[in-house]
Amino acid sequence: MTTCSLARVNSISGRLTLSLLAALTVIPLLAGSAQAGSLDEIKKRGLIVATEDDFRPFEFVKDGKPTGFDNELIEDLRKSAPFEIKQQILPWTGILAGVSTGKYDVAITAAIITKERKQSLDFTSPIADATHYYVKRKDDKSIAAIKDLNGKTVGVQAGSALLARLPELGTLLEKEGGKLGKVVEYTSYPEAYQDLALGRVDYVVNTIINLQTLVTEKPGVFELGQAVSGKSFPAWAVAKGNTELLEFLNGFIAKEKENGRFAELQKKWFGQSFPDLPVSFQPEF
Predict the structure, then answer these.
(1) Which keywords fit this entry according to its UniProt record (predicted)?
(2) With a threshold of 0.85, does the pTM exceed it?
(3) Which residue of 152, 212, 233, 275 shows the fewest CB atoms closer than 10 Å?
């Protein structure tokens, strides 16, 4: 857990920042050996899939087994793909760097599409809505609207797109005569939620789906606030230029949508379906 000021936030451009730094470290070691695998290569050795270890409801581990929205889709992919699926369950940090350098073929996780990430990655069709909201303690009567976040301490995942877009919230607060308070960065969101419950931070920013899941699981502890960002969408990521694999994955997603499976899993894990998701998305940030 680390803390930073708004100036620090402005210098960080999302989860990709950590990923790019990691990539710069490992590229010399991987040169000549790690690169995006073609479909022909993948058919021979299998598809290396990286998923996150604890990002409910998209991916998490329960009773020693991977579960969640993305993990159920991976099981569907195993049944239809003409190659083996080799899944690696990892902490978030380093997943996208691993994809961009060829260590993994695809990140099947809810990676928010951003301008910076698109410099080194290509994204599938969006899989859900990822508009950013805040969550607070249910018994905290000092927060009833966005203006009440003035100067308060916020928790967010380190290296995340949500961290990169906190200045949007800062702008909203400035219009009300306020400002963004101290920012506390966490390795994972469960840590942030724990600190929120204990009063160590005043609110946490995450996507609407993640926070709806949290509030549903712990309605006596947390309360959902309002949107603090513009539209945002998560998708799966492959290395930049890996067109064959991208087309294959988009084809799989399209079939899951056509047969109703996609909406079924969205309702199961998100509590609602998203029938109007764009086929592709060009981010503003």
Answers:
(1) Signal
(2) no
(3) 275
